Amino acid sequence: MQRRLFLYNFRNLRKAKGRRETYLCYVVKRRDSATSCSLDFGYLRNQMGCHVEVLFLRYIAAWDLDPGRCYRITWFTSWSPCYDCSQHIASFLRSYPNLTLRIFMARLYFCEDRKAEPEGLRRLHKAGAQIAIMTFKDFFYCWNTFVENREQTFKGWEGLHENSVHLARKLRRILMPLYEVDDLRDAFKILGL
């Protein structure tokens, strides 16, 4: 991936107007007892009419994974999955119990007219996906693994840490069980807050 492309699409802005594509960097490993073996890595982006998450699921499903072996897939995405993609991913994970998926996201995607994405993320989490917001070390890893960086060191942009913390808190609130959210609201009401 070109440096400019990575820096533009993965910048963890709170409001990322004009960034309409989702990029997905991936690493696929097979776990053999205490060791793991890298099978593949690379990146994909949305194609006309198809979200990148679905493209990856089609790609990996064609591998004919051995059900007797364990696999770990790690994604670094420029946007969190939409509701429909979250459903597809959750279904895929249920079909492959020998596969674990970790998703590190630069930004949270919310479709303005549906507002279903938080529920999609909750279902994805419940299906066993480990989901988190990218931090400096994740951007650093991507820079060194997926970017044609010409041996230039990754330099974080202004606001990278603050935005990661803000988005991580937002994601934590989304993933918090709804009964805990109601308990917190009740506690704030009692306190007059």
TrEMBL record:
<keyword id="KW-0862">Zinc</keyword>
<dbReference type="GO" id="GO:0070383">
    <property type="term" value="P:DNA cytosine deamination"/>
</dbReference>
<dbReference type="InterPro" id="IPR050610">
    <property type="entry name" value="APOBEC_Cyt_Deaminase"/>
</dbReference>
<dbReference type="GO" id="GO:0045869">
    <property type="term" value="P:negative regulation of single stranded viral RNA replication via double stranded DNA intermediate"/>
</dbReference>
<protein>
    <recommendedName>
        <fullName>Single-stranded DNA cytosine deaminase</fullName>
        <ecNumber>3.5.4.38</ecNumber>
    </recommendedName>
</protein>
<keyword id="KW-0832">Ubl conjugation</keyword>
<comment type="function">
    <text>Single-stranded DNA-specific cytidine deaminase. Involved in somatic hypermutation (SHM), gene conversion, and class-switch recombination (CSR) in B-lymphocytes by deaminating C to U during transcription of Ig-variable (V) and Ig-switch (S) region DNA. Required for several crucial steps of B-cell terminal differentiation necessary for efficient antibody responses. May also play a role in the epigenetic regulation of gene expression by participating in DNA demethylation.</text>
</comment>
<dbReference type="GO" id="GO:0000932">
    <property type="term" value="C:P-body"/>
</dbReference>
<dbReference type="InterPro" id="IPR016192">
    <property type="entry name" value="APOBEC/CMP_deaminase_Zn-bd"/>
</dbReference>
<dbReference type="InterPro" id="IPR002125">
    <property type="entry name" value="CMP_dCMP_dom"/>
</dbReference>
<dbReference type="GO" id="GO:0016554">
    <property type="term" value="P:cytidine to uridine editing"/>
</dbReference>
<dbReference type="GO" id="GO:0006397">
    <property type="term" value="P:mRNA processing"/>
</dbReference>
<dbReference type="Pfam" id="PF08210">
    <property type="entry name" value="APOBEC_N"/>
</dbReference>
<keyword id="KW-0479">Metal-binding</keyword>
<dbReference type="InterPro" id="IPR016193">
    <property type="entry name" value="Cytidine_deaminase-like"/>
</dbReference>
<dbReference type="GO" id="GO:0016445">
    <property type="term" value="P:somatic diversification of immunoglobulins"/>
</dbReference>
<dbReference type="GO" id="GO:0008270">
    <property type="term" value="F:zinc ion binding"/>
</dbReference>
<keyword id="KW-0507">mRNA processing</keyword>
<comment type="similarity">
    <text>Belongs to the cytidine and deoxycytidylate deaminase family.</text>
</comment>
<keyword id="KW-0378">Hydrolase</keyword>
<dbReference type="GO" id="GO:0005634">
    <property type="term" value="C:nucleus"/>
</dbReference>
<dbReference type="GO" id="GO:0004126">
    <property type="term" value="F:cytidine deaminase activity"/>
</dbReference>
<feature type="domain" description="CMP/dCMP-type deaminase">
    <location>
        <begin position="18"/>
        <end position="124"/>
    </location>
</feature>
<keyword id="KW-0539">Nucleus</keyword>
<dbReference type="GO" id="GO:0003723">
    <property type="term" value="F:RNA binding"/>
</dbReference>
<keyword id="KW-0963">Cytoplasm</keyword>
<dbReference type="InterPro" id="IPR013158">
    <property type="entry name" value="AID"/>
</dbReference>
<keyword id="KW-0597">Phosphoprotein</keyword>
<dbReference type="GO" id="GO:0051607">
    <property type="term" value="P:defense response to virus"/>
</dbReference>
